[in-house]
Amino acid sequence: MFDGFTKAPDIRGHERIVEWFEGTDSVEGLPENYVIATDTYYANYKTHRKKGSKINQSINEEYIPVVGGLIEASKVGRDEPDVFYKMLAKKTDQYSSSFHGNTHDIGCTMLFVRTDQKQLTKRVFKLKLRVQGEVYDLFHFMGRHKPWSENLTNAKLFLSTSMKLHYEPDRQFKLLKIRQKAQRVSKKRYEHHQAIKNQTPRWADRFKINAIYMERSRRNKRDGKNTWHVDHIFPLTYRSKCGIEGSGLHIHQNLRIVSRQYNLKKSNKFVVDEAEINEKL
After folding, report:
1. What does the domain layout of the chain look like in residue ranges?
2. Which of 65, 72, 127, 191 has a CA-to-CA distance to 155 between 20 and 30 Å?
3. Beta carbons within 10 angstroms of residue 86's beta carbon
4. pTM recorded for the entire structure
């Protein structure tokens, strides 16, 4: 039995299948581009938090499918690399077991359809910062000033850079949680992300790679959004003028920071003569 039925805000072209799914438990006669999957997860009705999805098994609370959201084909039993399925509707079980007060074990049956849309997941870290009592009291004191309440964050940042303590504050960070945040992206951006993922060797120095991207972000904050790009000297996929094809690795030795104009002109070409690009700028 089911006590809840929800459907995506946009089910255009799928109305008949969604209506059929709502009134049956059978999967016979379902078109090939649709799939029905089951899932269980924990939900807290007091905080409205969900976690522990069986489809996305992870101790770090991976993205839980939502009605209207996307999920990788492999998560619903389909062997289709780089293909996503959109959840059209969900039927929630009538019976759920209660654990620890407001936390319940929820079961559901979901209807998905194959889609051309793409999605990436971004890791979000929740940290706990421990500092000396004097440092905490300094920042806590600022919150008591009402004139600053509208822009308290900037006030704290300003004070943290202008105030000079007679000692270096002792900072200790503790990782509390890592969760996945879903983000819809274009096909081009998704393919670029997958190319980076596939062409980053295990021995790559990720610390130095991140340092280059951080420097790019610092320059963009200084000179304006999207002023600077990170360029692959040997493009991830390239074709030379004489027809030779190849690919470069995503390693720090193959990365450099260049202007937006230069990177757009260079595109995915391997440039031997830099003057050729500079003449076009």
Report:
1. 2-119, 124-180, 199-273
2. 127
3. 22
4. 0.72
